[in-house]
Design a protein that fits this description.
single chain, six-stranded antiparallel sheet, 257 residues, 1 helix, Jelly Rolls
């Protein structure tokens, strides 16, 4: 049954379901995770015509931060998560779940330098994340490759769906950047699996020690010049560009005993 749903049908997202910041927010929202250019700003999330837009745009003047590229956040961008609204205020996670199927229908920016991520982490206030689910990670210069990973054993081991670029497991390799597509992840006690447009791309079957068994939070964000893109030399060619990640919905389905 459907246990979580945000359809973005109004003029704003439901703030009781989603936060515009990452879990370690203590009042100033969040800067880049991976030495990118972005500072996450709640104002960069807008809702209209049935979708949420997470917009990345130049930040003037830049925000000084050791978390960002060259210690300067030169972009502002959008993030939505089911984390605690303020880590210092003793607030509860807005939503977590253990086992089920999570899916979002989205249209990502297929532009070099922009990085789309739809992922999950344990709901752990200590930030000792023992696992990480990358439902999708998309480098904007290559909209044909949808990277999918599961990191376990304190994130020291991984299952990778993709064997390099131009490979999406059992899912088609095509340009996914021109329209909306659904990206989903099925999490069960003994296995996990990734889906694109209803097609199973890959499945990882593991032991109880390998498959996460505690509640997880959901994160969707648009990064700019992620460290991965820096390493691969596919960063922004024009630092005045404005691009948006568009979300049609976010849903979680779970079996009822």
């Amino acid at each position: 049954m459907l246990t979580f749903s945000e359809e973005f049908n109004g003029t704003d997202y439901d703030h009781n379901k989603l936060s515009p910041c990452f879990d370690w927010n203590t009042g100033g929202c969040t800067n880049s995770f991976n030495k990118g250019r972005e500072h996450y700003d709640p104002a960069q999330i807008t809702v209209s015509n049935g979708t949420a837009k997470l917009t990345a745009a130049p930040l003037v003047p830049p925000l000084s931060s050791t978390g960002c590229f060259e210690n300067q956040c030169t972009y502002k961008s959008g993030l939505l998560s089911t984390c605690r609204p303020n880590a210092n205020a003793g607030t509860a996670y807005l939503y977590t779940f253990t086992y089920g199927y999570v899916e979002s229908r989205m249209k990502f920016p297929a532009t070099q330098g922009f990085f789309t991520a739809f992922w999950m982490l344990p709901a752990d206030p200590s930030y000792a994340y023992r696992s990480e689910v990358d439902i999708v990670e998309i480098l904007g210069d290559d909209p044909r490759t949808i990277f999918m990973h599961y990191h376990y054993n304190n994130r020291s081991q991984s299952h990778a769906v993709n064997q390099g670029k131009g490979n999406n497991g059992a899912c088609p390799v095509k340009d996914y950047g021109t329209d909306f597509h659904t990206f989903g992840f099925d999490w069960q006690p003994d296995r996990v699996a990734w889906y694109i447009d209803g097609v199973k791309c890959s499945e990882f079957t593991g032991t109880t020690a390998q498959i996460e068994n505690g509640p997880q939070q959901i994160i969707i964000d648009l990064m700019v010049d992620h460290k991965w893109q820096q390493d691969w030399m596919v960063t922004l060619q024009d630092t005045t560009l404005v691009r948006a990640l568009e979300l049609d919905y976010l849903r979680v389905y779970q079996q009822v005993p």
